[in-house]
Amino acid sequence: MNALAVPREVCSEFERASRLEWLETNGKGGFAMGTVAGANTRRYHGLLVASLRPPVERHVLLSRLEETVEPGIELATNAYPGAIHPSGYRNLIEFRLDPFPTWVFDIGGGARIEKSLFLVQGEDTAVVLYRATRPCRIAVAPFVAFRDYHSLVHSNPSLDGSVRADRTGGALTVRLRPYAGLPELRLHVSPAARFVADGTWYFAHQYEAERDRGLDFVEDLWRTGTFTIEIAPGQAAFVVASLSDRPVDAAAVARLEAEERARRLPAGADPFAARLSQAASQYVVRRQDGSPTVIAGYPWFTDWGRDTMIALPGLLLSRGRFDEARDVIRSFLAHRDRGLLPNRFPDRGEAPEYNTVDATLWLFQAAFAYVAATADDAFVREILPAFEEILRFHLEGTRHGIRVDPVDRLLAAGEPGAQLTWMDAKVGDHVVTPRHGKPVEINALWYNALRIAALWARDTGNDAGAASYAREADAVERAFARAFWNPERGCLYDVVGGPLGDDAAIRPNQLFALSLPFPLLDSIQRRAIVRVVEKELVTPYGLRTLAPGEREYVAHFRGGPWERDSAYHQGTVWPWLIGPYIRAYLSAFGSTTENVDHCRRLLEPLERHLVSDACLGQISEVFDAEEPFRPGGCPAQAWSVAELLRLVTVDLADPSARAIRIRRSDGPLLEETR
């Protein structure tokens, strides 16, 4: 797999280069992120964004480095009101992910300087390396923010600008703690460097992406001082920013670089799958207690229950990370309450939030996929009591009006002010897509949960429990087609039994009735659903969340929080939905070579997006619903990556890999081709 490279003609155009982002992560919730141009365009951009209580409580500590090569050749780029200064992007001749972010600058006379950056796994440590083709002297000024990553900072008298400098071991070390209550940052620099403590405020840094999002976008940063570093050809000069007390010298930095390069060696012959696998690795992190979890998206999401369970098969199982997958399931099960998994863990340590009807049902899917991949019967025996407890709460009723209707046995949910499905946008007290009643995908998931429980109960010798769950599933199966089939539109209602009656809007949620391991409906209905979705919702970058022509359809995801949240699930395209769509397509029309090839071609625009747009090497959260399908939301989204990786390694892989073995609770082993 070749390095992902951005050529000079793009690098030297600020408008384009400042919209291409890169991402580095450290496996504990911290990250570094910025643009090809070098300018920070988001409040979340920085060279060291540390997670102080992994994977949450993130703080932007080191915002940027401003470098100048004598006699005045700029490497850094920054935006101020009406000016780009410095403008190092003009000297940038190449950017590449090789395997981590690397910038190559022309410093005159045919000479070049290369800057690269990586994070140390399991630590809040950023390593920046400089290599030159001729001897040169470079001035490096660190700019710090030391604030919560959702916030912005402005000049204030509370900042302590004092520093402590010493030469211990093989580096010049400068220590600073601008604010009490936040950790000390250590800056380790090549041993021959000099440091001048000329700290001062720099005002009005502008973050253009925040302006586009309708948010505050101006910040002041503190320049801590200036390092002067001599760079010799063939040797790497370094700046290491860290919260760790590890000793740092040239040998240690070289070892860290070698370890990081070895960790990222691509696996497999398919470049698309290899890049997706590397992208997937950035979402799997460790909590403070050492248990694994999944970051929903960078830069602003933490670990969400729904996102984790949907992404788990692609992020972990597709890469053979079975132990981590099992431990993620265990960890979330430990946080269940009244039969529900947390929707999210708040960023500042408050109690988990349980406003979700589907996260727990997606847990059944994640666990079923894990067991299918590993044949871990012992794990089934371990978790089945918890799963049966979950089912009891759903059958009897739990928070947010989640309960089984005693008449038709379908699962209902909803209460005023609550957003419970994955279409969960809320602005203030306004729930944009409440979907109260009996949502279609919730009942497909509920049906599958019952079938899975029946299968596992039977496998563990509980025949009475298996029969009970099977009867309940049979009742749901009978009621589902009667309740959800809309003969006028030839597809499924999105919600039935809601406060305003049945919702006939065409949305992608109906695909889950046929994309899950235990599909519903007859073959004619399945094909009709796929054709309607294909016509109304499929785009080059995923599926629209609402069909054009529907009353609440919004074509573009842009503007301030109200405008964006009002469009979030009202037409906006989500790439992750391409996974359920393709599985539904193959379920309806069969996994013939022709159909598999057709589905594989559907992924080509997203494959190009991975290497040429938004956050390089990642897949965006959403796209506009109409041309030119501009990417938006989180530039790096876990389930976007996960669903694509699952498709290329499982669903669209060799036919023998697509067959899964399912024992129906009421019958023998079946071979079902997904």
Architecture overview:
It is built from 19 helices and 41 strands. With 674 residues, the chain is of the alpha+beta class. Strand 34 and strand 35 form a beta hairpin. The longest helix is centred in the last third of the chain and has 22 residues. The radius of gyration is 26 Å and the shape is elongated. The relative contact order is 0.09.
Mean pLDDT: 95
How many extended strands?
41
Strand content: 25-35%
Shape: elongated
End-to-end Cα distance: 29 Å
Q: How are the SSEs placed, and which strands pair?
A:
Layout: E1 4-6, H1 8-11, H2 14-17, E2 21-25, E3 31-35, E4 46-53, E5 56-69, E6 73-74, E7 77-80, E8 83-87, E9 92-97, E10 101-106, E11 112-119, E12 125-132, E13 136-148, E14 163-168, E15 171-176, E16 185-189, E17 194-196, E18 200-206, H3 208-212, E19 218-223, E20 226-231, E21 237-242, H4 250-263, H5 271-281, E22 284-286, E23 292-294, E24 297-298, H6 305-315, H7 322-334, H8 359-374, H9 377-396, E25 403-404, E26 411-412, E27 426-427, E28 430-431, E29 438-439, H10 440-459, H11 463-484, E30 485-486, E31 491-492, E32 495-498, E33 501-503, H12 512-515, H13 523-536, E34 538-539, E35 542-544, H14 561-567, E36 573-574, H15 578-589, H16 593-602, H17 604-612, E37 622-623, E38 631-632, E39 636-637, H18 638-651, H19 655-658, E40 659-663, E41 669-673
Antiparallel strand pairs: 1-9, 2-3, 3-4, 4-5, 5-6, 5-13, 7-8, 9-10, 10-11, 11-12, 12-21, 13-19, 13-20, 14-15, 15-16, 16-21, 17-20, 18-19, 22-23, 24-39, 25-26, 27-28, 29-32, 30-31, 32-33, 34-35, 35-36, 37-38, 40-41
Helix pairs in contact: 5-18, 6-7, 6-8, 6-18, 7-8, 8-10, 9-10, 10-11, 13-15, 15-18
